[in-house]
Every structure is written in C-alpha cells, then in structure tokens.
Design a protein that fits this description.
single chain, mainly alpha, two-stranded antiparallel sheet, 7 helices, extended
C-alpha cells in the first residue's frame, strides 16, 4: 500500500514456527526420579538395524523424554520461595506457642527440602555463570573493565618513603627505593679467591685442524 493506491482484499500474516531449544540443566541429575527417567527413555525401542543410527535414535528418545519431564517440573526459584515462606510462617507460630509434634516434623522436612533445593540452585547458577563467562568473558563490557580497573588500583603503589621519611611518587624514584631495599636484604658477596686454575684449563692451541 505504500507504493500503490490499491487496497489489498486479503491480508495474510506469516508466522514461522520456531522449535523450542532444549537445554539440559545439571541440577536435574540430583532429582530422585532422574535415573528411572533415563532408564525409561533409553529402553524405548528404536527399530534401527544400523548401530550408529540406533545410538542416535536412543539419544533423541532420551532428549524427548527428559524435555517433556522438565516442562512439567515446577520452577526452582518459586519452590525455594514457597518453602521459605512456609518456614517463616512456622517460625512466627513458634514465637507464640510450642509447635506440635506433627508441626515440628513438618518443619524438619521443609528444612531438608530447602537444603536440597539450595544445592540444586547452586548447581544451576554454577552452570549458567560458566556459560556466561565463556560467552562474554573477553568482551569489552563495563563489568570486565570495572574488574580490570579495580585490579590495577590494587597493584598500583602511589607513594613510597625512603629511610629519611621523604615521600616519592615518580616511577624512577620508587624503583630506586625498591632496588636499594632488596639489595640491603639480600646483601653483597666479596671476592676472595679463584678455586679453578684457569691457566691450565684455557690453553692456546696452535694446531686448529
């Protein structure tokens, strides 16, 4: 319509479907049902005679099963928030009265569950931080330059004082102070005598053939 005065009678919206990318999370291996799921996905028949094709089909089946199972799992962050909320509620009740035996057992189960979820979260963050560092570790981002600047400031000696108490800020004067300090610590050697007879070791040879 931008280049013509004709109005189209039919408008078609083209929406190209995109396949969901499957990314395996390492924290799933700590789940209690993970090994049974892997065994189930690996034991699905493939009906392939070639060994390489059979192996590829088994991996595809395993990926499909794990992907479907992962989509039905609840969010790790929400689980941690919900468990913390219930634990906080039980702690508030405990301030006013003693918990019953059932409530104490429930609190102990929740504490164990929270530790398990936090371990999973640690594995999840470790995996994703490593991926981000590999992807953006050498990129000239503000985060990278800030770390480099802080490290440079830590390694920079702005001022040194000599034995007289005079402050020196130039690079040459600071280098001289460090050189003299290390030389005084290490000390100097004095030449006494030569143990090797150089005149017997180094003799002129007339015949160079």
């Amino acid at each position: 319509m931008e280049t013509s005065n004709h109005v189209p009678l039919v408008s078609i919206a083209i929406d190209i479907p995109k396949g969901a990318v499957f990314r395996f999370e390492n924290y799933l291996m700590a789940h209690e049902n993970f090994m049974e799921l892997v065994q189930h996905g690996w034991s699905i028949p493939t009906h392939q005679t070639d060994m390489a094709k059979r192996l590829t089909s088994k991996f595809k089946n395993l990926r499909r099963v794990v992907k479907a199972w992962q989509s039905h799992l609840s969010n790790l962050k929400e689980n941690i928030r919900n468990v913390k909320l219930i634990l906080q509620f039980l702690c508030m009740i405990e301030e006013f009265r003693d918990l019953t035996l059932m409530e104490r057992n429930f609190k102990a189960v929740l504490e164990d569950k929270l530790l398990f979820l936090l371990r999973q979260q640690k594995i999840y963050r470790k995996q994703h931080c490593y991926i981000r560092w590999v992807k953006e570790g050498d990129v000239g981002t503000n985060f990278f330059h800030a770390h480099a600047t802080i490290k440079h400031r830590r390694n920079l000696i702005t001022c040194l004082e000599d034995s007289d108490g005079t402050s020196h800020t130039t690079h040459q004067s600071k280098a001289i102070i460090l050189w003299e300090a290390y030389k005084d610590r290490l000390g100097t050697t004095e030449f006494n005598s030569m143990l090797l007879d150089l005149s017997s070791l180094l003799q002129n040879s007339e015949d160079l053939s």
